[in-house]
Protein backbone atom coordinates (compact mmCIF):
# COMPACT_ATOMS: atom_id res chain seq x y z
CA UNK A 1 0.00 0.00 0.00
CA UNK A 2 2.99 2.25 -0.24
CA UNK A 3 1.91 5.72 -1.30
CA UNK A 4 -1.79 4.83 -1.28
CA UNK A 5 -2.79 4.68 2.36
CA UNK A 6 -5.46 7.02 3.72
CA UNK A 7 -4.63 6.43 7.37
CA UNK A 8 -2.17 4.70 9.64
CA UNK A 9 -3.55 2.80 12.61
CA UNK A 10 -1.45 2.10 15.67
CA UNK A 11 -1.65 1.53 19.42
CA UNK A 12 -0.25 3.03 22.55
CA UNK A 13 2.99 1.46 23.76
CA UNK A 14 2.96 -2.14 25.02
CA UNK A 15 -0.54 -3.04 23.80
CA UNK A 16 -2.50 -6.01 25.12
CA UNK A 17 -3.50 -8.95 22.92
CA UNK A 18 -7.09 -7.68 22.78
CA UNK A 19 -5.97 -4.27 21.52
CA UNK A 20 -3.65 -5.85 18.94
CA UNK A 21 -6.48 -8.07 17.73
CA UNK A 22 -8.71 -5.00 17.31
CA UNK A 23 -6.01 -3.15 15.35
CA UNK A 24 -5.36 -6.18 13.12
CA UNK A 25 -9.09 -6.56 12.42
CA UNK A 26 -9.47 -2.86 11.58
CA UNK A 27 -6.42 -2.84 9.30
CA UNK A 28 -7.78 -5.90 7.46
CA UNK A 29 -11.36 -4.61 7.20
CA UNK A 30 -10.80 -0.95 6.30
CA UNK A 31 -9.41 -0.30 2.82
CA UNK A 32 -6.64 2.28 2.66
CA UNK A 33 -5.62 1.73 6.30
CA UNK A 34 -2.17 0.45 7.17
CA UNK A 35 -1.19 -0.96 10.55
CA UNK A 36 2.03 0.26 12.12
CA UNK A 37 3.62 -1.56 15.04
CA UNK A 38 4.68 1.23 17.35
CA UNK A 39 7.08 -0.54 19.70
CA UNK A 40 9.15 2.04 21.56
CA UNK A 41 9.07 4.63 18.80
CA UNK A 42 8.01 8.14 19.77
CA UNK A 43 4.85 9.56 18.24
CA UNK A 44 6.82 12.01 16.07
CA UNK A 45 8.41 9.06 14.22
CA UNK A 46 4.92 7.69 13.53
CA UNK A 47 3.89 11.08 12.13
CA UNK A 48 6.92 11.07 9.81
CA UNK A 49 6.06 7.55 8.66
CA UNK A 50 2.49 8.68 7.95
CA UNK A 51 3.77 11.55 5.80
CA UNK A 52 6.03 9.16 3.85
CA UNK A 53 3.11 6.79 3.31
CA UNK A 54 0.88 9.62 2.09
CA UNK A 55 -1.68 9.17 4.85
CA UNK A 56 -4.03 11.98 5.87
CA UNK A 57 -4.71 10.67 9.38
CA UNK A 58 -3.15 8.68 12.19
CA UNK A 59 -5.65 6.64 14.20
CA UNK A 60 -4.42 5.74 17.69
CA UNK A 61 -6.13 3.02 19.72
CA UNK A 62 -5.43 4.06 23.28
CA UNK A 63 -5.73 1.46 26.00
CA UNK A 64 -6.18 1.49 29.74
CA UNK A 65 -5.75 -1.52 32.04
CA UNK A 66 -5.26 -3.87 29.10
CA UNK A 67 -8.48 -2.94 27.29
CA UNK A 68 -9.06 -0.56 24.36
CA UNK A 69 -10.21 2.71 25.93
CA UNK A 70 -10.42 5.35 23.20
CA UNK A 71 -9.86 5.99 19.50
CA UNK A 72 -7.94 9.21 18.86
CA UNK A 73 -7.66 10.84 15.44
CA UNK A 74 -4.75 13.02 14.28
CA UNK A 75 -4.96 15.03 11.06
CA UNK A 76 -1.59 14.94 9.31
CA UNK A 77 -2.57 17.16 6.38
CA UNK A 78 -3.70 20.09 8.55
CA UNK A 79 -1.11 19.35 11.27
CA UNK A 80 -3.56 19.30 14.15
CA UNK A 81 -5.58 16.97 16.31
CA UNK A 82 -9.09 16.20 15.33
CA UNK A 83 -11.38 17.83 17.85
CA UNK A 84 -12.96 14.54 18.90
CA UNK A 85 -12.15 11.12 20.29
CA UNK A 86 -14.33 8.05 20.60
CA UNK A 87 -14.45 6.67 24.14
CA UNK A 88 -14.85 2.89 23.98
CA UNK A 89 -17.24 1.14 26.38
CA UNK A 90 -16.35 -2.37 25.17
CA UNK A 91 -15.00 -4.47 22.33
CA UNK A 92 -16.42 -7.75 21.10
CA UNK A 93 -13.69 -9.63 19.28
CA UNK A 94 -14.15 -12.30 16.62
CA UNK A 95 -13.51 -14.93 19.30
CA UNK A 96 -16.49 -13.68 21.34
CA UNK A 97 -19.06 -14.31 18.59
CA UNK A 98 -21.13 -17.49 19.04
CA UNK A 99 -20.09 -18.89 15.65
CA UNK A 100 -16.58 -19.05 14.26
CA UNK A 101 -15.70 -15.93 12.26
CA UNK A 102 -12.76 -16.51 9.94
CA UNK A 103 -10.47 -13.70 8.91
CA UNK A 104 -11.37 -12.57 5.41
CA UNK A 105 -9.08 -11.23 2.70
CA UNK A 106 -8.22 -7.52 2.95
CA UNK A 107 -11.09 -5.26 1.92
CA UNK A 108 -10.93 -3.12 -1.20
CA UNK A 109 -14.15 -1.13 -0.79
CA UNK A 110 -16.13 0.11 2.21
CA UNK A 111 -19.22 2.12 3.07
CA UNK A 112 -20.48 3.64 6.33
CA UNK A 113 -24.14 2.92 7.13
CA UNK A 114 -25.36 5.06 10.02
CA UNK A 115 -28.74 3.79 11.22
CA UNK A 116 -28.41 5.83 14.43
CA UNK A 117 -27.86 9.06 12.47
CA UNK A 118 -25.12 10.06 14.90
CA UNK A 119 -21.82 11.87 14.64
CA UNK A 120 -19.90 8.56 14.80
CA UNK A 121 -20.88 7.71 11.21
CA UNK A 122 -19.82 11.17 10.07
CA UNK A 123 -16.48 10.80 11.87
CA UNK A 124 -15.71 7.47 10.15
CA UNK A 125 -16.77 8.90 6.80
CA UNK A 126 -14.63 12.03 7.23
CA UNK A 127 -11.50 10.29 8.50
CA UNK A 128 -11.44 7.31 6.14
CA UNK A 129 -13.16 8.92 3.13
CA UNK A 130 -15.89 6.30 2.73
CA UNK A 131 -19.40 7.13 1.48
CA UNK A 132 -21.99 7.69 4.22
CA UNK A 133 -25.48 6.18 3.83
CA UNK A 134 -28.47 6.03 6.15
CA UNK A 135 -30.06 2.86 4.75
CA UNK A 136 -28.89 -0.75 4.90
CA UNK A 137 -29.74 -1.27 1.21
CA UNK A 138 -26.11 -1.49 0.00
CA UNK A 139 -24.41 -3.87 -2.39
CA UNK A 140 -20.96 -4.23 -3.89
CA UNK A 141 -18.85 -3.33 -0.85
CA UNK A 142 -16.35 -5.60 0.91
CA UNK A 143 -16.90 -3.93 4.28
CA UNK A 144 -20.04 -2.33 5.66
CA UNK A 145 -19.37 -0.19 8.73
CA UNK A 146 -22.71 -0.30 10.53
CA UNK A 147 -23.40 2.28 13.26
CA UNK A 148 -26.50 1.47 15.31
CA UNK A 149 -27.92 2.04 18.77
CA UNK A 150 -27.87 -0.76 21.33
CA UNK A 151 -27.71 -1.15 25.13
CA UNK A 152 -27.48 2.59 25.75
CA UNK A 153 -24.37 2.90 23.55
CA UNK A 154 -23.62 3.28 19.90
CA UNK A 155 -22.35 0.03 18.38
CA UNK A 156 -19.96 0.07 15.41
CA UNK A 157 -19.99 -3.26 13.57
CA UNK A 158 -17.80 -4.24 10.65
CA UNK A 159 -19.80 -6.51 8.34
CA UNK A 160 -18.91 -8.39 5.19
CA UNK A 161 -20.94 -8.35 1.96
CA UNK A 162 -23.03 -11.27 3.30
CA UNK A 163 -23.96 -9.13 6.36
CA UNK A 164 -21.98 -11.47 8.60
CA UNK A 165 -19.35 -10.13 11.01
CA UNK A 166 -16.00 -9.29 9.44
CA UNK A 167 -14.12 -7.89 12.44
CA UNK A 168 -14.50 -6.94 16.07
CA UNK A 169 -17.42 -4.72 17.04
CA UNK A 170 -16.93 -1.62 19.17
CA UNK A 171 -19.30 -0.08 21.72
CA UNK A 172 -18.83 3.68 21.75
CA UNK A 173 -19.68 5.21 25.13
CA UNK A 174 -19.48 8.79 23.91
CA UNK A 175 -17.79 11.18 21.56
CA UNK A 176 -15.42 13.42 23.49
CA UNK A 177 -14.81 16.85 21.99
CA UNK A 178 -11.40 18.29 22.71
CA UNK A 179 -10.19 21.85 22.47
CA UNK A 180 -7.85 22.21 19.55
TrEMBL record:
Keyword DNA-binding: no
Keyword terms of this UniProt record: Ribosome biogenesis
Taxonomy, superkingdom: Archaea
Phylogenetic lineage: Archaea, Thermoproteota, Thermoprotei, Thermoproteales, Thermoproteaceae
Function: Probably involved in the biogenesis of the ribosome.
Domain Brix, first and last residues per copy: 5-180
Protein name, entry field: Probable Brix domain-containing ribosomal biogenesis protein
GO biological process: rRNA processing
Gene3D superfamilies assigned: Probable brix-domain ribosomal biogenesis protein
Claim: Lyase is one of the keywords in the record: no
GO-annotated molecular function: rRNA binding
Amino acid sequence: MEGGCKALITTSRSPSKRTLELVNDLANSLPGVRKVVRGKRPFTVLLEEAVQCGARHVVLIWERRGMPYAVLFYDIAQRRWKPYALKIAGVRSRRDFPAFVARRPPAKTAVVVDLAQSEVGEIFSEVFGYPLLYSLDVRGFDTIILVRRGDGHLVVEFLGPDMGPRASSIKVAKVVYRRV
